Structure formats: structure tokens, C-alpha cells
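Hi,

Apologies if this is the wrong queue. I'm a grad student, and the batch job for Solute carrier family 40 member from Calcarius ornatus produced an output file that my downstream script rejects. I'm not sure whether the problem is my script or the file. Here is the sequence I used:
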Amino acid sequence: GDRMWHFAVSVFLVELYGNSLLLTAVYGLVVAGSVLLLGALIGDWVDKNSRLKVAQTSLVVQNSSVILCGVILMIIFLFKTQLLTLYHGWLLTLCYILVITIANIANLASTATAITIQRDWIVVVAGEDRSKLADMNATIRRIDQLTNILAPMAVGQIMTFGSPMIGCGFISGWNLMSMCVEYLLLWKVYQKTPTLAHKSAKVEASELKQLNVKKESDMKPAEGVQLIIEKDVAGFEPQQEKEVGCAARIAEPFITFRDGWVAYYNQPVFLAGMGLAFLYMTVLGFDCITTGYAYTQGLSGSVLSLLMGASAVTGIMGTVAFTWLRRKCGLIRTGLISGVAQFACLILCVISVFMPGSPMDLTVSPFADISARLFENEPLPTIASPESEMIFATGMPNLLNGSIAPANSDPEMSPEPVPLISVSLLFAGVIAARVGLWSFDLTVTQLLQENVIESERGIINGVQNSMNYLLDLLHFIMVILAPNPEAFGLLVLISVSFVAMGHIMYFRFAQKSLGKQLFVCHTPNPKAAPDSSPPGNTSTV
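Support response: The file is valid. Your script probably expects a header line. Output copied below for reference.
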């Protein structure tokens, strides 16, 4: 259900706002900004509460929000004409704000679910076996990619041959059913794994203190450990809580935010996490921006769902490559090889910018679309077909989105063929790069799992999510400033540059960790390899 919603929400917003990427970019901006500000607090909440309570609460909030969003979108699609006339269109604008707000709540709950299940539960279930942890990470990612195949295909076909309103209803109903099934499955896993009922806090609190007050005086130990042992302090020193009172409660979120980022900076895998975060500063992924761009270029929801399915297949190949490379070369070298593979595939996206069919036009101001909408109240400019020779083109009408057909075209004439070489190279590069991307993502995920102490898992991964969304936020800001398709080519070039910088950071981390052994690819000794120490040991990588 979550994957259905992730695919459909971008198409819904593009459909509602006249085939512009502006509304999807605003949605992405709100989502990224929320996780950026609240990621550490969400992680802290995960650390302070029982695993079952966190998992069940976040699951219910996430699915309920998606269901409510689907119902509101159905109402908008049904009564959009009437809503436009009421209060000069302000009621429709209020509906847009409501949809984005509720969808943002769903995303925050999804973040909490991902942190507790994929960063905490799985480590406890795997125990001390790192190979088992790697296999479980890869298996979970394969399941995730399979849902990326099935979910978009299902909702894409419904939206293409039915209507967006029917798609909203289907997603809402599916999430209602899946919420009940997921709730029961979580309860069964919790019952079969007794260690999930126990969370360490006191032992690791001293380790957290060493990380947070590393450069501070030892005279104020309570400040460094307030993040995790707040409940213990409340139990042993109730008078202190009364003395601080309301001021402490107001300051607590800010202290948690600060301590979380300080602890994240002091992690031995800081550069690896930063390298992963830089990969989020890109429009070369199957998010709402890329799918929205493809939609404006004439690809239907059905074709987009098939392309997303193909990307999921290559993502599954990336999980297989991860497990094989880790056994052959070790965990850290796997990330290095995966980064090189991803960057090589993205060269196709750079080439696509300059091929026939690319809408990039440097003579058109990147801000023309947003300035026309905000100041001149003009409609979106129609994208004219290139006058150059159209090679590798097709005239298949079922691939086209009828909403972008020229208004002055002769109805007796067949639709002009659409040049596909540029968009084909773009998606070929994006899809092929998923092999290296997911292998690299699994590498950094396991590095974080193995080298972060148990009492910090929630907040460190919350800060990592915030870091990811910070770079994600920048790419949404770019699209908001330049939402017209003519500027998309520039965004592609900037995206590839940030991916390169991210892998350079990881290379620096790998160089510091392995030294001269970095390029010596051999089967690691499970007792001596740097990525085979027991989970929770922060002294080695």
C-alpha cells in the first residue's frame, strides 16, 4: 500500500495542477523539510519507547493517513469544477494544502516504521551473525523491490484504463486491508523473538556520553546523556524535574536535536552516511519529480508503472550483487565498487540531455513557468515538438498522455510521432544505475547497523534520514525554482555532480578505514575483517 501511494501521489498532483511539476515539488519540499527537522525527534521517540508500541503506532498512523488522503483526493476529482468556483478557488487551494499535510504525516509515520523495523528489529533478530544480517537486509530490500514492481503496475493500469478517482479508491481500500495484515505479522514476529522485548539503555548511555561530550568538560555529565536516560533521571531525581519544570520541556526537543546531530557527527561511519545522503540530491530516481517529468513528456501512467517495475528488477539485481560482492571483497569494498557502477550508468543520463527529443532549451528562462503562474497568471507554455529530424520515434497513441496534445492540431491528422531517444536514454541510465545504487545503499545501511550502539540506533538513523532529506530538500527547491521541462536537463547535470561528490566522500571513508588494503579484493576472514566485529562495537568499521 505504501508503494502504491508513493507512485500514485506524484501522478495525482500533476493531474490536478495542469501537468506542472510545481505542486509535486511543493509536496516534496514539505516532506523533506519535515523529516529534516523532526528526524532526530522521531528517532529519539523510537529509542525511548518499546519496540512493539513504536511499530504498531507508526503503522496505524501511516495507513490511516493514506486512507484519508485517498478519500479527499476522490472528492477533489469528483467536484473539482465546483471547488474552483467557490470562494474564488481558495477552497480548492485549501484541499491541496490538506492533502499535502496529511500525506506528510503519513511519510513521517513511514519514517518511524522504517527506523524501528529495518534499523533495529532486524539487528536484534539477526543476533551476532553479520552474514545473516546482510542476507536479511538483502531479503527485505528484495521484498521492497517486488512491491515496487507489483504495486505501481496495479495502480498504473487502474489509472490508465479507469480514472484517477478509481485509483484513489483502490489505494484507500488496499491500505485498510494491508494495515490489519501487517499489524498481525508484527505481533507474530514480536512473540517469536523474545529479545525484542528488551532494550538496553543504561550500559550504552555511558558510551553515548563519551560520544556527545567528547570535547566538553566532564563536570556536566547530565547534559551529554539527557537524550537517552531521561526516564532514568526522572526516576532517580524527581526533584530536579520539578525544579526545571516547563522550561526543560520546551528545551528538550532542541537538546535532543543538538545531541543527536553531535552523536551522528562523531560516528566512525559519518563520511559513509554523508556519501549516501548526497545521492538524494538528484532528480534521477523514480520519485514524484522524475515521474512527473515523464508524464509531461507524454508517457502514460501505464508506461511509467512498467518502467518503475523494470527499475525494481534492477534493484533486486543490486541486492544479489551486494551479497555476492560482500562475500568476495568485504563490506567496505562492496560500497566502493557499487558507487563506480552507479556513476558509470548515470553517464547515459548526461548523454540524454543532448539527444533529439530532449526539451532542454537554454534560451528559455528556468523561472519562466513559476513567474508566469505567480505574477502574470498565464497558463503553462505548450511544449512544441522539435523541428529537427525525429529518429527512434513512435506514433503509438497509447503511449501518449492526451492531456498534452496541441489544442490547434487537426483532428483528421494522426498524432505526430514523439521522439523517444532522449527519454529512453534517460530512463535506461536511471534503471541501470539502480544496481549500483541499491548495493551501495545496503552497504551503508549495514555499516550503520554494525557500528551504532543499540541505545542510539533510533536517533542516529533518524539523523541519517534527516541528512538524506536535507539533500532531497535541495533538489526539490531546484525544481520549484525551475519547474519547466526545458530546465530539466540542467537538473540532470547537477544531479550527476552530486552523486559523484557522494561517492568521493565514501571513497575517503574507505581509504581511512582500510588504508593500503583498499584495492586488495579478497574473501574476508570472518574473524579478522574490519566489517565483522560484533554489532554495537563503535571502535571498528
